[in-house]
Structure formats: C-alpha cells, structure tokens
Design goal:
By secondary structure, this protein is mostly helical. It has 20 helices and four strands. The protein has helices spanning about 1-15, 35-50, 55, 60-65, 80-90, 95-105, 110-135, 150-155, 170-200, 205-220, 225-250, 255-265, 275-290, 300-305, 310-340, 340-345, 350-360, 365-395, 400-420, 425-460; strands spanning about 20-25, 30, 135-140, 145. Helix 6 packs across helix 15, helix 7 packs antiparallel against helix 15 (about 310-340) and helix 17 packs across helix 18 (about 365-395). The longest helix is centred in the C-terminal third of the chain and has 37 residues, at about 425-460.
Length: about 450
C-alpha cells in the first residue's frame, strides 16, 4: 500500500508540480506544471484560430442560450440543457474555496489571471464541445445521444482500422475520467458534511446519509438527472450572483479600490505575498484551469448529448459556460472576499475565510447561506459527473445496465466515505484522473481541431 501511495505522489507531482521554473525580472520566478504547459499554449492557439471567438462571438453565445428548445430525438436534451449539466460540474468547490485559496496565495492579482485563463479556455471549450457533437452517437440505453473525448479519440486512432472496437488512448481517457469522478465524489462528501457541521453543528454522519440518499434517488432513476439540474443550477447560480450584487451595492464606494488592487497586483506592481509576480500569475492561472475544466474533456461528455441543429452551436454554448463559471461565479467569490476588511479575514483560509467574509457582509445569515450554496454546488456537481460517466462506462463496457448501475453505486459509496473522513490520497487520485484526462484529450484535440474550426466557418457561413 505504501508503494502505491508513493507512486500516486510521484504521478501527482509530475502532472501538477512545477515541471519548468522560469526566472523573471525582479528576482521572482514562474513555475510551470505540465498541464499549464499543455493548456495555456493550446488556449492561445485555439483563440487565434477561432479569431478571438470568446470576444467576437459573445453576442451569438447569448442569442443561442435563449433560443427555443427544439429536439428531434425522444429523451434527448437541448443545447441549453447540456450547458446546464456542464455548468453544474464546473461550478463547485473551486468557485468558493478555490478562489479564496488563489487570492490567499497569490493576492488580488490572481483574479485577473483567472479572467485571462477563462478567455483562453473558452476557445478550448468550443473546440472540444464541437468535436463531441461531430462524433456523437445514438444512445441505445438512455435514448438521445452520447459521446465525448473517448469517442472522438477512438475515431482519430481507428481511421485506418475501422474494424477495431477500442482504441488504447480512448480506453485510457475513459478510465481516467472514472477515476477522477470517484475522487471528486469523496471531496464533495467531505466538503458538504464539513460545511454543514460548521454552520448548523449537525454531525457528519446524518448529513452524509441524507446526501447519499437524495443522490441515489436521482442518479439511479433513468431520466431524473437532467430535470433536477434544470431546477437546481439556475437557482443556485442566480442566488449566489444576486447576493454578491447586494454585497457590492452595500460596498459600492470600495469597488474602485478593489479593481485597482486586482490590476496592480496582477502585474506585480504592488506585491501581496512573497514570491511576487510568479505567485500571482500561477495561482490565478492554475485556479482558472482547474475551475473551468476547459481541455480536460469533462464537459464534452454533456455537449455530445445535445440535440442541436449545428455542432458549432453547442461549441459556443460550452464556451459561454466557461464565462459563467469563471468570469461570473468565481468573480462573485473574489468580490465577497476582497470587499471584506483585512482584519476580518487575516489568519483564515478556505471555507473559514469565506464564511467570515460573508458573516461580515450579511451577519449570521451569510454563514448559513454559504453552507447552503456549497451544498447545492456540490450536490449538482455529483449528479453532473455521473451524467458524464455514462458515455465513458458505455465505451469501456458496452451498452448494458449492469455496468452503468455498478459505477453509480461505487460513486455513491465514495460519496458516503468522503462524508465521514477526508482521505487525501484518494483526493490526489481525483486530481491525477483529471490530469490524465487532459493529456489524453489534448492528444486528439490538436489534430482534430481543424474539423471544429471548419464547423465554425460553416456556421458563420
């Protein structure tokens, strides 16, 4: 067991640790992980190839979002519903505690680099979602469509041998996804039980039993997931945004100072922490990448299920999803924290820091609100990742209810275990899973990107 845990640490460090360290003027340095080296250049490349799609086509994204739902297959989902599912998984712990951690380690300037990362990530999200649409298949079990990176990776590597039933890289992607989502299940269970215990003093066992029971009722039923997410996601995101606007309104005179901090610290003009510009830059970039998931291959599992008139439309919707996640929701967390006096948040970290900031702004209600909103964020994430898992399970084990149900039960068990205790090594497995997913996804994304660019040109006509 000790050997296995050491291997996990080595792989985790390889994926997420500083692979390259670059010195920069002023005596600071920037450490670049393998995933940063993969995703940032890819995001820049896709942004240029799509002619700055996130800015140029933002009005088109809004137009598609409010389009009337129109599906041609029974039990299929609309493009907007696919966006809601992907938003459910993007909007989670990273938008709350993750943003707090980024600002704590990198200062207010980390927020600016999160925004930049989101703009680049939007282009990547467009490419992977469009490819998922191009290579989607009919789903014989659930109805509608299914697909994702495992399917377009398969097509890329079996073109010369179409009789092959599986591709090694596609198998590795699918396994990495299932590994990642089990790790995330544990994180969700622990986060929810801890937050509820802090806010309401309810023992973790009771919270966890309720959480698992509710999740089981939803995920073990055939067509309930999308209906529940359609209800939860707009409410939770809308409430969080609304209360952030109220907080900003109460502290409107402080807003210019907050933005001045963000932009000045972004370029190291006023250092907030030791390490200077390097810490500011990388904390913002890493948190942005982890939060919006662009390039990891998660969201395309939902994008492929959309019954939509043109592949590029779903690509634009998923690009808009990155905007919602980082520019809107992550910025809400940043504003809640940065508008609170330093004396309130000094010496605190994670949920304690965020709850202290909310207590300053909204009193005891603020602490309760954060606990409830975290519960909703985490619960919707769990339901969403099991929707993602459908396509990976089907690719690995074929179209049968036994494998689909067994994976759901396994994830529910992991959710229960996580609610009672934190096993950091399992959490590391989740991070390794998303790191490996990203690598295998990017192997196919670059060579296939010309097809997504072609779809965009065709759509723009």
């Amino acid at each position: 067991m000790e050997i296995f845990m050491n291997v996990v640490k080595v792989v985790y460090q390889f994926l997420w640790g500083d692979l390259v360290t670059l010195p920069i003027p002023g005596g600071s340095s920037v450490g670049l992980s393998l995933l940063v080296l993969l995703l940032i250049p890819a995001g820049i490349y896709f942004t240029i190839r799509t002619r700055f799609l996130p800015i140029r086509l933002f009005p088109e994204m809004l137009k598609i979002t409010v389009e009337k739902k129109n599906v041609s297959q029974e039990h299929s989902i609309s493009g907007l519903q696919a966006l809601i599912i992907s938003t459910a998984t993007r909007v989670g712990m990273g938008n709350l505690v993750g943003v707090v951690a980024a600002i704590s380690a990198g200062g207010a300037g980390a927020v600016f680099w999160m925004w930049v990362t989101a703009l680049l990530g939007s282009s990547t999200a467009f490419v992977e979602a469009t490819l998922a649409q191009i290579y989607k298949e009919k789903d014989p079990l659930y109805g509608g469509y299914r697909g994702g990176p495992a399917y377009y990776i398969h097509q890329l590597f079996t073109r010369k041998k179409p009789e092959k039933r599986r591709s090694v890289i596609a198998i590795l992607f699918a396994l990495s996804g299932l590994l990642c989502w089990c790790g995330i299940s544990q994180v969700i269970g622990n986060s929810v039980s801890s937050a509820v215990e802090n806010a309401f003093h309810i023992p973790p066992l009771y919270t966890t039993i309720l959480l698992v029971a509710l999740a089981a009722v939803i995920v073990l039923r055939k067509y309930t997931t999308v209906k529940i997410l359609d209800l939860i996601v707009p409410v939770m995101a809308g409430c969080y945004f609304l209360f952030t606007i109220i907080i900003i309104g109460k502290n409107i005179t402080l807003l210019p100072d907050v933005f001045e901090r963000i932009f000045s610290e972004a370029f190291g003009l006023r250092q907030a922490v030791a390490g200077g510009f390097g810490a500011v830059l990388m904390n913002g970039v890493k948190r942005g990448l982890f939060s919006n998931e662009a390039g990891s291959g998660s969201a395309p599992c939902a994008a492929a299920a959309a019954d939509i008139s043109h592949p590029a439309k779903e690509g634009l919707l998923q690009a808009f999803g990155v905007f919602i996640d980082t520019i809107v929701i992550c910025s809400c967390s940043a504003m809640i924290m940065l508008l609170a006096p330093a004396s309130v948040t000094d010496g605190l970290s994670g949920m304690d820091l965020l709850q202290a900031a909310m207590q300053y702004h909204l009193g005891d209600f603020g602490v309760i609100f954060i606990a409830v909103i975290l519960w909703m964020f985490s619960f919707s994430t769990f339901i969403g990742i099991l929707y993602y898992a459908r396509s990976n399970v089907a690719y690995l084990f074929g179209d049968n209810w036994i494998s689909q149900t067994l994976y759901k039960i396994f994830a529910l068990v992991m959710l229960f275990i996580g609610g009672l205790a934190a096993y950091t090594f399992v959490w590391d497995l989740g991070d390794i899973g998303i790191g490996l997913m990203t690598i295998f996804n990017m192997i196919a994304l670059i060579p296939l990107s010309k097809e997504a660019i072609g779809a965009l040109k065709d759509y723009e006509g």
